[in-house]
Amino acid sequence: MMIISRRNALGVMAAGVLAAAGAGYHAPALAQNTYNVAGMADFTGPYADIMKSLVAGRWAVLNWWNEEVGKGLGIKVNMKDYDTRYDTAQTSSLWPGIKSELKPIAALGLGGPDSAALQQRLPDDKIPLMMATAGYGYAWRAEPWVFNPRATYAHEAGAFYLWYRQQKGITGPLKIGIISSEAAPAYVDIHKGLEKFAAENKDKIEVVETVYTEVQPSDLTTQVNRLLRKGAQVINIQTNTAAVVATKRALQSLGRKDVPILMSSHNGLPASGKAVGGLAQLEGDFEVYGMAIPSADASETRKFYDMLVAKYKLTGGWDVMTMMGMNQMLFTVRAIEAAAKKVGADKVTGEAVRNALFDNTITSAQTFGVLPDLKFTREAPFPLGGMAVNIGTVKDGKYTVAAQNVPVPTVNKW
Questions:
Q1: Where residue 346 falls among pLDDT bands split at 50, 70, 90?
Q2: Residue 19 has pLDDT above 70, yes or no
Q3: Where is the Leucine-binding protein domain (predicted)?
Q4: Of 141, 173, 180, 201, which is the most buried if we count CB atoms within 10 A?
Q5: Can you tell me the distance from the alpha carbon of 136 to that of 51, in angstroms, rounded to the nearest whole number?
Q6: How far apart are CA 195 and CA 268, in angstroms?
Q7: Domain range holding 39?
Q8: Angle formed by the axes of helices 241-253 and 221-229, to 10°?
Q9: Please, what is the average pLDDT of the chain?
Q10: How many domains does the chain have?
């Protein structure tokens, strides 16, 4: 694919004007530098039903930045989406062609499959992979080229549990049950991280059991009943909506409304509520993640979203997947912006973008509250300090924010 920059197109036009006006005319120079990023998407795989919102969030932020920030820097960023089907083999297969076609200065990943496929290649390719999700323990390595704007799922859950324990006035350890699966590396990683956190904070957290199920369980009544008999006060499900639905049905059949479910962003309250038959079914349940919650509450993030809808034709709804796309593109273009200011608008490379993440703090104000302040170090692919999460819940049948800027605790590497 040949990508023609606006500068080249204007150069052709200027040449015509110069020929018509004579040699005495000198057209003003318009410096613009064009760079490319690659967008990993899933249009035909397990997340195809929600991918339109995520991609829409990316594109609207990119169009905004090009017009209102990049133009002033003399930069335009183009993007092309590739259907990787949330599949490691597909990502690996497409990557050589993506590099050859785009020569990208950054790539936008979806999750574990992209990280697994590219983690070993990126240092040689010198292309940073920017994610929207929480981090993974198996990717916790020094000198990263994969970047998560959120700490690990265990970090995020740990923040919730310490907050919830305090809110409930629990003096002993909060007892949690985990619903997980060994079918996906990311799922295994989540419960390993939580078990590590609990083992190092025995006075505050106790994992009564980790239940292993199939990826999309249909009936978990027996397993949930066992967790309840062991005293579980919260059930952790950071895997998918199917597990949330099966667990909620089990709790309902057992007559237990006092034990909440904790979810993450990709399987959070609106998505799981839709799957279970209505948001009201999740009254008193929670979600936690390190980005803004798209609730009905007024916020700077909502103002920014509304502006993107009005001026840049954002088609994604006010939902978590749109928010993930916005979060991912916002910290990517802010890194490109910082790199351009450091090395010059005509010298931005993937390595310069990576270095900009280490050398600068991307403030929450720069992302309109979509993300907390981000300060990356060379020790991990996600910020190890200063992180915070937001907690959502369903109260009186309405989706709302339960807490904001809850500090992320220290979770040691597992």
A1: very high
A2: no
A3: 35-363
A4: 180
A5: 21
A6: 22
A7: 6-23+33-151+298-383
A8: 70
A9: 91
A10: 2
Q: Which residues pair with 107 in a beta bridge?
A: 38, 129
Tens digit of pLDDT for each residue in 113-165? 898 899 999 999 999 999 999 998 988 999 999 999 999 999 999 999 999 99
> How big is the chain, counted in residues?
414
CB 288 within 8 A of CB 264: yes
Whether residue 403 sits in one domain with residue 377 = no
Q: How far apart are CA 171 and CA 208, in angstroms?
A: 17
Instruction: Pick the closest to residue 106 from 68, 139, 146 (CA basis).
Output: 146
Strand-pairing partners, residue 146, are 129
Q: Is residue 28 part of a domain?
A: no
CA-atom Rg of the chain in angstroms: 23
pLDDT tens profile 62-118: 999 999 999 999 999 999 999 999 899 999 999 999 999 999 999 999 988 898 899
Dist CA 203 CA 25 (whole Å): 79
Q: How far is CA 245 from CA 160, 225, 272, 352, 378, in A?
A: 21, 15, 7, 45, 39
Residue 412 lies in a domain: no
Candidates 293, 316, 315; CA nearest to 398 is: 293
State the Cα torsion 114-115-120-126 to the nearest 10°: 80
d(CA 387, CA 369): 13
One domain for residues 365 and 275: no
What value does the mean pLDDT take over residues 303-324? 96
pLDDT single digits (tens) 214-231: 988 999 999 999 999 999
* Beta carbons of 407 and 388 less than 8 angstroms apart: yes
Same domain, 375 and 277: no
Same domain, 81 and 97: yes
289 within 8 A of 389, measured Cβ to Cβ: yes
Pair (71, 118) in one structural domain: yes
The CATH number for 181's domain is: 3.40.50.2300
